[in-house]
Amino acid sequence: MNCPICKHGTLRLGFSSATLERGGAVLVFKDVPADICDNCGEVFHREEITRALLSQAETALKQGVELDIRRFAQAA
């Protein structure tokens, strides 16, 4: 698939980091599956990955986490 941002690159499956911030809390997820443009580097997360990221972030916030760096845990 061509990149919708730069229109020149091709999206390739890879891994990225995702930083989420809310209410002063900062969560960094490493090794998140993503489609990444081989030209401009733009990162796109699929819907199921985004849902999992937000769910994991919500759990961390409910536990009182304010700053955290963790590996993304993909649901089995």
Give the tally of β-strands.
Answer: 4
In CATH, the topology is named: Ubiquitin-like (UB roll)
| Beta-strand residue percentage | 35-45%
Q: Span between N and C termini?
A: 26 Å
Q: What is the CA-based Rg, rounded?
A: 14 Å
Structural class: alpha+beta
Which word captures the global form? elongated
Average pLDDT taken over every residue = 95
Order of helices and strands: EEEHE
By DSSP (H or I, 4+ residues per run), the number of helices equals 1
Q: State the low-pLDDT regions, or none.
A: none
Q: Helicity range of the residues?
A: 10-25%
Which labels suit this protein?
76 residues, alpha+beta, Ubiquitin-like (UB roll), 4-stranded mixed sheet, 1 helix, 21% helix, elongated
SSE layout:
Elements: E1 11-22, E2 25-37, E3 43-44, H1 47-62, E4 67-71
Parallel strand pairs: 2-4
Antiparallel strand pairs: 1-2, 2-3
Brief account:
The chain is an alpha+beta fold and 76 residues long.
Structure description:
With 76 residues, the protein is of the alpha+beta class. The chain has a single domain, classed as Ubiquitin-like (UB roll) (Roll), CATH 3.10.20. The protein is built from one helix and four strands; from the N terminus they run βββαβ. It has one helix at 47-62; strands at residues 11-22, 25-37, 43-44, 67-71. Strands 1, 2, 3 and 4 form a four-stranded mixed β-sheet that branches. Strand 2 (25-37) and strand 3 form a beta hairpin. The chain is elongated, with a radius of gyration of 14 Å. 9% of the residues are buried.
